[in-house]
Design goal:
10% strand, globular, six-stranded parallel β-sheet, 221 residues
Length: 221
């Protein structure tokens, strides 16, 4: 029986990934790097490595890369503050599940970005805890974020479920020994999600899935 649900943030609760892509692309373009959508998907959503090595290949030194990173982060924060978008259907889903499960947000986003995103979403009251990149030594696809979520929840891994939209998130969840439902976005829809217990079209399908018998469990798709 599922007792705890761990939710990814970007792509699952809020539609921010396209904004992060555009901010990163904009900054890299100033040093001659044309980051394509395909590059972004592979480097950020599959491998989780980021793209600063592409700037290094253009001769940008470590200090220059750090300056670019700061520019991207500032631009991303500016754009996020304008109009963060909730994923369609997420609020009624959380309303249905509140109180029935221990629920936490487990994200590789920085805490400052996370705070900007959720300044006006009204979602945080549905969750028992939040873990951001500031709480980890290693972010997804490393399993550390979900291992910390397991410890924070006090629930056995077999009774935990992760909700993810990307290959790197799925890999992190499976590495921590917990089941994972994947709800792909426009950016991740072409991914390979072997090991997911279910692949859904919408977060709106999650309550019905949780009410099935037997509940979601690990299997290879």
């Amino acid at each position: 029986m599922i007792e705890a649900i761990f939710w990814d943030n970007d792509g699952i609760l809020v539609e921010t990934e396209p904004v992060y892509f555009q901010a990163t692309r904009h900054v890299l373009k100033t040093v001659g790097v044309d980051l394509t959508e395909a590059d972004y998907i592979q480097l950020f959503l599959v491998e989780g490595t980021g793209a600063w090595h592409l700037a290094e290949q253009q001769g940008i030194d470590r200090a220059g890369v750090e300056a670019l990173r700061n520019q991207r982060n500032a631009l991303y924060s500016e754009w996020l503050a304008q109009a963060p978008r909730l994923i369609d259907g997420i609020t009624p889903v959380l309303e249905q599940l509140r109180g029935r499960y221990v629920m936490g947000i487990v994200t590789s986003s920085r805490r400052d970005h996370f705070d900007v995103i959720h300044r006006t979403t009204g979602l945080l009251g549905y969750f028992d805890f939040v873990l951001t990149a500031d709480d980890f030594n290693r972010v997804k696809p490393d399993p550390e974020p979900y291992l910390r979520a397991i410890a924070k929840s006090g629930i056995a891994p077999a009774a935990c479920l992760a909700i993810e939209d990307s290959e790197r998130g799925l890999k992190a969840a499976l590495g921590a020994g917990i089941s994972c439902v994947v709800v792909p976005t426009a950016l991740t829809r072409g991914g390979t999600f072997a090991g997911a217990c279910r692949i859904l079209e919408s977060v709106s399908q999650i309550p019905a899935l949780l009410s099935t018998s037997p509940p979601p469990h690990h299997r290879t798709v």
